């Protein structure tokens, strides 16, 4: 279910990823884009369904949307995402990591667990310069995201059944308009827009770098030190050129 106005986005076919969601208006960083709704099923049922769009809710439950219903389940994976999964009151929201520009395709990390044989099956075609070639994540990041961050943010709602198996997960009565930046997410400036120039003679802190990328949506060029910051990773490492 989208929570932004229908005039803000357009669903259309992509060259090699099926359908995708593209913005028709700029969005500010932190904007809550939608709620991942669908039928609550077990992990085993999701695997047997042959529906690619299943979203993990906890260790027992998956959210399985109707593949023919135009929702945030149409947002594709990218190794340089501009959106992210955000846990909220037992639901999984999709939020904007940074300012996203008109014409950009929305994307987030699918975070497929690195089980044997999945790397080839979940091939990535995002086209980012540092594309990993797969939607599969590392066990290190998977545990940090699901076992630590999600559990902490969801609290008691993490394992609480919000709907019986086979029933539709109901929408929340109210949603936040925006959420704060969380350092668990990798943050990249837009590859479609030119970098902004920063006059600093040394790199600011990673906190300031994240804030600038989130607010402007762009990479940060530091001509006085000959560096362009493309992104800040969850582990504090910088992607530069």
Q: Descriptors for this entry?
A:
single chain; 241 residues; alpha+beta; Beta-clip-like; 2 domains; five-stranded mixed beta sheet; three-stranded antiparallel beta sheet; 4 helices; 15 strands; 23% strand; SET2_Histone-Lys_MeTrsfase
Can you walk me through this structure?
- By secondary structure, this protein is α+β, with helices and mostly antiparallel strands.
- The chain has two domains: 6-157, SET domain (Beta-clip-like), CATH 2.170.270; 187-240, no CATH class.
- Helices cover 16% and strands 23% of the residues.
- It has four helices and 15 strands.
- Strands 11, 12, 13, 14 and 15 form a five-stranded mixed sheet that branches. A three-stranded antiparallel sheet has the order 3-9-8.
- The longest helix has 16 residues, at 139-154.
- The protein is globular.
């Amino acid at each position: 279910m989208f929570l932004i106005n229908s005039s803000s986005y357009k669903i259309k076919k992509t060259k090699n990823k099926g359908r995708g969601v593209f913005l028709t208006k700029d969005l500010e960083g932190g904007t809550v884009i939608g709620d991942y709704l669908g039928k609550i099923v077990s992990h085993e049922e999701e695997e047997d369904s042959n529906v690619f769009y299943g979203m993990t809710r906890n260790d027992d439950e998956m959210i399985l949307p109707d593949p023919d219903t135009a929702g945030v389940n149409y947002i594709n994976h990218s190794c340089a995402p501009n959106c992210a999964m955000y846990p909220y009151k037992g639901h999984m929201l999709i939020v904007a990591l940074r300012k996203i520009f008109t014409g950009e395709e929305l994307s987030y990390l699918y975070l497929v667990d690195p089980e044997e044989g999945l790397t080839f099956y979940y091939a990535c075609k995002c086209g980012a310069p540092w594309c990993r070639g797969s939607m599969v994540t590392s066990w290190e990041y998977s545990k940090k995201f699901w076992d630590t961050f999600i559990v902490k943010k969801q609290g008691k709602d993490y394992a609480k059944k919000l709907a019986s198996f086979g029933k539709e997960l109901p929408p929340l009565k109210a949603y936040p308009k925006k959420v704060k930046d969380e350092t668990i997410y990798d943050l990249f400036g837009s590859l479609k827009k030119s970098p902004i120039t920063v006059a600093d003679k040394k790199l600011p802190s990673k906190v300031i770098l994240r804030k600038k990328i989130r607010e402007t949506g762009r990479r940060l060029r530091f001509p006085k030190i000959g560096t362009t910051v493309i992104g800040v990773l969850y582990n504090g490492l910088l992607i530069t050129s």
